[in-house]
Design brief:
By secondary structure, the chain is mainly beta. It has a single domain, classed as OB fold (Dihydrolipoamide Acetyltransferase, E2P). Helices cover about 15% and strands about 40% of the residues. It contains 2 helices and 10 strands; from the N terminus they run βββββαβββββα. The strands form 3 sheets. Strands 3, 4, 5, 6, 7 and 10 form a 6-stranded antiparallel sheet that branches. A two-stranded antiparallel sheet has the order 1-2. Strand 4 and strand 5 form a beta hairpin. The longest helix has 12 residues. About 30% of the residues are buried.
Length: about 160
Amino acid sequence: MAKRLDSRYSPGVRGRGWLKIKGARTLDLVIVAADWGYGRRHGCLSNYHLAARGPAQGEFAEVGKTFKGLTDEQFREMTQRLLALKIGEDGGTVLVRPEVVVEVAYSDVQRSPQYDCGMALRFARIVRLRDDKAPEEADTIEHVSNEFARQVVHPAP
């Protein structure tokens, strides 16, 4: 939390003098699927399923989704790129070969029964495309697990 030194605290009131600062970390993850968008993003794949490398070669474990971080033009370009990697479709979700690596900023890792790995990223957003990295160079599920363990606060004895 950051605040102006001369600002007053008013319970329950958000003011301009106080600012909540959230630290962000990043991971290099692979897009393994994407959902068709709606509204302004109709006709584009815009909700990306993000995965970390699993213990077996070529295995990826989903750790979250995001539709944040790209411009409208980048969404259109990514749609074409992902459609070229399409391996299947499940309802409104397009499954793709895990070849596109993206740098993803997030605020925390939380427990999640929604994903097989038991963890999910909070407030994930794409920072940039990592065309310089192969999927085999993406972060591992073990690394995500270590990030989760690192952030857990242990009570004093």
